[in-house]
Specification:
2 domains, 7 helices, glycosidase, mainly alpha, Seven-hairpin_glycosidases, two-stranded antiparallel sheet
Length: 150
């Protein structure tokens, strides 16, 4: 019987084989390259820096919008530009209540990204907000999987 881990490793191997050729940082299997693959297997330093900056800008667009319009709710409702938390009026609303637990989920979710981006000042502010305002002592059913994948 093939274990789930074995299947996962096979899938990862195939994904890496399909997407990470040549100079790719994840090319741990060292697949041989054709001339065309070599040409398109990596990006220039300028392109890498541009993509890095674009990623940073997109993160801060979402994070700043959440902090301005939604905090301390769990997430930003992009259609109404307002915060969204659990639906206490309708406990059977699984689309909302399956994920949101009334504990500033997006703020907690953003902590690791702030650290990775090296934004020590905003990271300190966010940690302070979590310490001072977030409580897990609530009558709320939270799907651990949904919260963990964020």
């Amino acid at each position: 019987m093939v274990s789930t881990l074995s299947l996962s490793l096979v899938f990862l191997h195939l994904a890496l084989q399909s997407f990470c050729y040549g100079e790719c940082a994840f090319n741990i299997f060292r697949y041989p390259l054709t001339r065309v693959e070599r040409k398109y297997a990596s990006i220039s330093e300028n392109e890498r820096l541009r993509l890095k900056e674009d990623t940073r800008d997109m993160f801060y667009f979402g994070y700043d919008s959440y902090m301005k319009y939604a905090y301390p709710k769990d997430e930003l409702n992009p259609i109404y530009c307002s915060g969204r938390g659990p639906d206490y009026d309708n406990p059977s609303n699984i689309n909302i209540n399956d994920i949101l637990g009334d504990y500033s989920l997006t703020l907690i979710d953003a902590l690791d990204t702030l650290a990775i981006l090296g934004d020590a000042e905003e990271f300190r502010k966010a940690v302070k907000l979590v310490i001072e305002n977030v409580s897990f002592d609530k009558n709320s059913t939270v799907q651990v999987f949904e919260a963990n994948i964020r």
